[in-house]
């Protein structure tokens, strides 16, 4: 089987430079003349000269009367100067032209009428309250330089000085071609079956391109066939675009034909960048146009787009490359990394006290939820071997900074009720965004300890006392003043396929050959519960097939059972119900929100407490199935157990 | 004449709150279902639930072979485990589904083939290099909460989990009606004559609205006639918009009908806000829709739009209000302000050393160039009476922060050659934006002294020594290590109307009755030159009509003469030539760029020095007329004078 060999991986900056050096933007991206009213966001191709002055006359800056300043110089309080209409003064409104010879305006508030005449009690300084000719714009002056992205303000200035048409660079046009045998075309609204994937990268990249000021066109998907790819690529190349992107097929796999396709019609400049995700990115030049091979994994495709295609296309269009606001972020968890690669890590970020705290989201290049859930992204430099927990890093904001102040980062155990809470928090007049990092109950407590979160979800059962959470708080977070507010009681048990075909009745069956288990990650309350039951039943974890297969959420456990990848996993009833699976109850447990008392007054925490106290919240939770809400919203105390 | 009485001015926040309280957004802004591929930038009306999981199968995360992990546990270096194709392993590419029963992937780089079989020398951990079912998205989970502005990333996630349509709030639609007797309709591409103004606010506000995510429609202008305004307003109100804006006519002038128009069809909630510019803003509710009376001055209209209309319309559409990045800026000049008003001041900002330094641009509410030239805007709170020079303020960025690092703030004397320099600097591969603050030569030196600028333009003539600039540097900036680089020699003189109708032959004529002078501001090199010649001729400034009429640029002086508002002003030949005026030479002078030696290595300064050394620059300067370039680009020394 033929496989591609990577070129040596090169840094992103070098890759961008190679592409720029190989492209002749002067020839590639032309200039067009358009109406100024349509020019917002376009880039000027020439300096723009004012055709008319603004103002074109001396005008009143205030409502009042226009006068000759000299005629008022003798005016004093108690010794007014009388002015006659027409000869000495004229009423003017803001913006009116001053009559010839008049060179000052007295504000109407200071005008006392006596019949037709007026009595002025203070001198008017020359040019007071007058907008003078040319004080703003003078004809023949340069209004805008070239290579300037036109703003709405610029549109106003241009029209006001008589510029109605403007020479701008063409908008950079990009064709995006999704490739692959296994993908389904989203425009057909397919219903994916087992093993099938709905292709979405192409549309995501189109939308990304448009948001960056380019113009993008998504072409129909092409299978992993060299001839079909060549035909589609050449067709796009021959059209009026400036760049063509092949999505997927850029790696070293046997079906990766992007490189050979690009090489067929031009020259491959870059195959491989020292960045993760995004490594197998390809840049080339074909017939004077930019060619890009974007990796198939969504996050990799995004990095390829944002770090390679975007700066090159901005340069083509003579626009400054987009830059995001950066903020200092304290890392709540260590981020490992490899030497020699720049690693892009997306973060959930919220404000805790005076600091922004960041929780790294997953690194998987295929994890679309890291793209949708992240508030920021940081880069670990190539010369670093990871970053320790607690360190400050600079992160690029993916949302507006105001958003962060409205973002509540919840760390800890995942529960489906958090989705309900998140939805109701967004409905408020002052919406709060709930960003969740699912690291398990113990991970949540650790985050509280290090000051990395305002609240943590936890459902840790202590068999010795029969109590929930408090024994763990006392042991692991001694000295911290914490409260526990109940979110719900929930039913935990074994999730099995409908009809329970493997006949699982309890923990003992899990050691049977042919029964495949799917576990939760270490530190999850559900894992702790399961291990407790294993021990109680005298079952050795080594006898349980799949004990090492760890998932991070109830839903992931459930879907493993649903698809037959596993026969059984421990999880909450609502997860089983959601996927129409059977459920064998094992225990009821208390899921609490652990909150440092010092943060109880935080408006975001107040919002959470308000929401979970409502009847609506309880009703929606109850409707999920497998929850009881009699303790919901109440502050717990040590020893309360299930409150019965 | 009837004039409006203002309501009591209220703070911006209270004005926004009043409007929100009076609007029923639930009824006003509806929900529509659109295709996900068109949903970027729209706001979700409901939480969005995943229809399919992603991935829907265990898939290979790397190219390689899929195996049963357990079958490899005995593998050791030197004691390999042999696996047979089909039975024990299968080749997989990234993204391929793992065959049933297989639960690990060995990377292709680690696979050694021996004929058809492979020899594995290290055990594969279960689930290594496997993308597991549901690790990203699981069906029934919430992908997006409600009231979320959809990003390109979200579009990708939605399509990948089978969501093809989405319920979003309507885009908020705004009708914008320009009003006024004196305005000209830009869509007709008019050529304004004396006293006429091309109306441009309406288009600027339309473009602003679109850039904020709203939809805006500009309607034809309506004259200052109550019946015509009522008809246009009611017609817009009856259309399918959510808000109607009347532009101009919101003050207390006799032609200000916005308030009465709005009152006629609904209720005026706000007339007057405690902000400057923007004070005479009006908010109302008419037939359940938002009504806005925007002031006629461009900067006032912008403040009304950004501080009142925008937050209310964002709230209508359930979107978070737009917020800009803020940066700390050191004020180079004091900003006076009045108690009781929030004052918005636009700033030219550049980086000087480690700090951002800001120069306040003009305060005039009609100054469109403050809108086009500002990099940031700051607010002086209502309880402040100005801000002292040197103080740090927080300013909202109007450009991207990278832009500031590429912005060179030039303070001092204005010259038309700066436009040429600005244009050539933008043409570079690494463009430099030249932001100029015209405060005159002395103002420029003051800015250098306070560390507020990297370079200053100066042409100060010292009659005692016959030298330029250095005597002033020695006197006012002793101890600073500065260099002077010549930009050009230029011809100064009296600018008069074509044919010199008033027969002005020299300074003495300026004292003649009927001759109106237009002066330059104190501190300008041209003003100093003029005062020198007055003194030399023994003419008392008090005898010169118009001596107190001060303009800030050569072009402003020239346009006063062109329009007949003055008969004569002192300025450079190129300004006279630009407006086809006559010119009486008085002196040649040296216009230098004064630069602290410490900044000579700054890349932006280096760019300036490179540009002014080119033949192209000298040729373009020479073409303006009235310049000599034999010293251009050369470093000056004390005593050089004109270099002859």
TrEMBL record, chains A, B:
One of its GO terms (cellular component) is cytosol. One of its GO terms (molecular function) is molybdopterin molybdotransferase activity. Signal peptide: none annotated. Pathway: Cofactor biosynthesis; molybdopterin biosynthesis. CDD domains: MoeA. Keywords: Magnesium, Metal-binding, Molybdenum, Molybdenum cofactor biosynthesis, Transferase. It catalyses: adenylyl-molybdopterin + molybdate = Mo-molybdopterin + AMP + H(+). InterPro entries: MoaB/Mog-like_dom_sf (IPR036425), MoaB/Mog_dom (IPR001453), MoeA-like (IPR038987), MoeA_C_domain_IV (IPR005111), MoeA_C_domain_IV_sf (IPR036688), MoeA_linker/N (IPR005110), MoeA_linker/N_sf (IPR036135), PBP_domain (IPR024370). Residues 175-315 form the MoaB/Mog domain. Pfam families: MoCF_biosynth, MoeA_C, MoeA_N, PBP_like. Its cofactor is Mg(2+). SUPFAM superfamilies: MoeA C-terminal domain-like, MoeA N-terminal region -like, Molybdenum cofactor biosynthesis proteins, Periplasmic binding protein-like II. GO terms for biological process: Mo-molybdopterin cofactor biosynthetic process. Its EC number is 2.10.1.1. PANTHER family: MOLYBDOPTERIN BIOSYNTHESIS PROTEIN (PTHR10192), MOLYBDOPTERIN MOLYBDENUMTRANSFERASE (PTHR10192:SF16). Catalyzes the insertion of molybdate into adenylated molybdopterin with the concomitant release of AMP. Belongs to the MoeA family. NCBIfam families: PRK14498.1 (NF011068). This is Molybdopterin molybdenumtransferase. It comes from Desulfolutivibrio sulfodismutans. The lineage of its organism: Bacteria, Pseudomonadati, Thermodesulfobacteriota, Desulfovibrionia, Desulfovibrionales.
């Amino acid at each position: 089987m033929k496989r591609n060999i990577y070129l040596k991986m090169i840094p992103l900056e070098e890759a961008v430079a190679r592409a720029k050096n190989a492209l002749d933007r002067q020839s590639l991206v032309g200039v067009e003349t358009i109406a100024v009213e349509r020019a917002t966001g376009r880039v000027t191709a020439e300096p723009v000269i004012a055709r008319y002055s603004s103002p074109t006359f001396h005008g009143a800056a205030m409502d009042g009367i226009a006068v000759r300043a000299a005629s008022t110089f003798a005016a004093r309080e108690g010794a007014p100067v009388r002015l006659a209409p027409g000869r000495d003064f004229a009423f003017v409104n803001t913006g009116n032209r001053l009559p010839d010879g008049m060179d000052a305006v007295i504000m109407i508030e200071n005008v006392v009428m006596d019949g037709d005449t007026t009595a002025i009690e203070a001198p008017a300084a020359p040019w007071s309250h007058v907008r003078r000719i040319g004080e703003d714009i003078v004809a023949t002056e340069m209004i805008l330089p070239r290579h300037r992205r036109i703003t709405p303000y610029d549109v106003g200035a241009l029209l006001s000085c008589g510029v109605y048409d403007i020479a701008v660079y063409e908008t950079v046009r990009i064709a995006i071609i999704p490739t692959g045998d296994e993908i389904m075309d989203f425009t057909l609204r397919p219903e994916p079956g087992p093993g099938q994937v709905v292709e979405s990268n192409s549309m995501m990249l189109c939308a990304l391109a448009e948001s960056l000021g380019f113009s993008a066109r998504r072409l129909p998907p092409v299978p992993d066939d060299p001839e079909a790819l060549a035909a589609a690529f050449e067709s796009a190349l021959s059209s009026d675009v400036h760049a063509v992107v092949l999505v997927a097929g850029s790696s070293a796999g046997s079906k990766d034909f992007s490189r050979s396709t690009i090489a067929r019609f031009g020259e491959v400049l870059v195959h491989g960048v020292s960045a993760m995700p995004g490594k197998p990115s390809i840049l080339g030049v074909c017939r004077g146009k930019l060619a890009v091979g974007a990796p198939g994994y969504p996050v990799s495709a995004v990095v390829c787009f944002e770090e390679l295609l975007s700066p090159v296309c901005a340069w083509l269009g003579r626009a400054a490359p987009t830059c995001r606001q950066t903020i200092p972020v304290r890392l709540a968890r260590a981020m490992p990394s490899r030497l020699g690669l720049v690693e892009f890590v997306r973060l959930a970020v919220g404000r805790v006290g005076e600091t922004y705290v960041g929780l790294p989201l997953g690194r998987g290049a295929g994890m679309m939820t890291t793209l949708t859930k992240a508030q920021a992204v940081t880069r670990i430099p190539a010369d670093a071997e990871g970053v320790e927990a607690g360190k400050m890093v600079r992160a690029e904001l993916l949302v507006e900074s105001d958003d962060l102040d409205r973002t509540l980062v919840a760390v800890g155990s995942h529960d489906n009720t958090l989705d309900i809470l998140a939805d109701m928090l967004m409905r408020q007049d002052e919406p709060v965004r709930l960003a969740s990092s699912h690291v398990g109950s113990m991970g949540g407590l650790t985050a509280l300890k290090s000051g990395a979160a305002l609240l943590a979800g936890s459902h840790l059962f202590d068999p010795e006392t029969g109590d929930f959470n408090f024994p763990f708080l006392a042991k692991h977070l001694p000295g911290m003043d914490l409260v526990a507010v109940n979110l719900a009681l929930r039913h935990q048990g074994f999730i099995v396929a409908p009809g329970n075909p493997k006949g699982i009745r309890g923990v003992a069956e899990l050691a049977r050959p042919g029964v495949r288990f799917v576990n939760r990650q270490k530190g999850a309350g559900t894992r702790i519960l399961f291990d407790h039951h294993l021990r109680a039943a005298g079952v050795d974890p080594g006898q349980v097939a799949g004990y090492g297969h760890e998932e991070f959420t109830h839903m992931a456990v459930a879907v493993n059972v649903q698809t037959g990848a596993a026969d059984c996993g421990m999880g909450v009833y609502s997860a089983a119900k959601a996927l129409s699976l059977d459920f064998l109850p094992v225990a009821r447990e208390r899921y609490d929100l652990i909150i440092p008392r010092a943060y109880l007054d935080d408006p975001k925490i107040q919002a959470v407490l308000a929401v979970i106290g409502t009847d609506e919240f309880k009703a929606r939770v109850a409707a999920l199935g497998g929850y009881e809400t009699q303790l919901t919203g109440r502050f717990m105390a040590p020893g309360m157990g299930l409150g019965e």
